């Protein structure tokens, strides 16, 4: 589908109702990532969160201690109930526990293929390497053919999409986008591109080109919940009518602001403060490498 560019990026469509965003994710009881990240991010940006639970994490601010999947039927039933009722404008996939749940998400996304599907590839430190291999395969085969944009950090995407890549030369964002494109995903937002010193480079790329490069100063400390926050922000902004080129710098600015105000609540890593968010546009980074054309987020199953 093609999202129209908006003059007022964060305005609700028609100015009347918040844009509904359905997110598939696990619950994280420490509130750093998972559904809590999605709900707070989407709501703070002005959207309406429709959280669909895929599983339960047992975690604190230091580590994930256990995870439990909900049944694929339960995942599908929750999503169907929401989609048949609320005017959902975009779908986010955070984490879906296992192949059966990813298949359920893919079936729903395929039924609603007019909606943009924003897919986050999380690090999965709580999974065994066998579980990670299965997750990678299911993401490639079932989810990427339907996704509009894939979001993930450079090393995670490299390990998944280009495991055979020359380890002496790290892949470019275009290399990663080309690998995603082979499975059907047109755009990739790669965070933490290798950079000297304290700079982080986040690149929006297609197989053909780097559409935008957004460099930010790396904030000191270790954070959890960054990927969920960024991908939920991106999804909410797209749901509100932003073009992808508008939404990416806004979502990155939102993450940056949340990390700048990060909370040290537990004994482990810092947690983004997603309620802390200045008026839109105030601190959006320069996006002088962005192209002005509107990108087509069509998810077209016919390419497969
Ligand atoms: C600005 C920024 N974004 C993300 C991270 C997470 O690594 C960081 N340290 N700083």
Automatic annotation (TrEMBL):
<dbReference type="InterPro" id="IPR029056">
    <property type="entry name" value="Ribokinase-like"/>
</dbReference>
<keyword id="KW-0418">Kinase</keyword>
<dbReference type="GO" id="GO:0016301">
    <property type="term" value="F:kinase activity"/>
</dbReference>
<feature type="region of interest" description="Disordered">
    <location>
        <begin position="278"/>
        <end position="304"/>
    </location>
</feature>
<dbReference type="InterPro" id="IPR013749">
    <property type="entry name" value="PM/HMP-P_kinase-1"/>
</dbReference>
<feature type="compositionally biased region" description="Acidic residues">
    <location>
        <begin position="280"/>
        <end position="289"/>
    </location>
</feature>
<feature type="domain" description="Pyridoxamine kinase/Phosphomethylpyrimidine kinase">
    <location>
        <begin position="28"/>
        <end position="270"/>
    </location>
</feature>
<protein>
    <submittedName>
        <fullName>Bifunctional hydroxymethylpyrimidine kinase/phosphomethylpyrimidine kinase</fullName>
    </submittedName>
</protein>
<keyword id="KW-0808">Transferase</keyword>
<dbReference type="Pfam" id="PF08543">
    <property type="entry name" value="Phos_pyr_kin"/>
</dbReference>
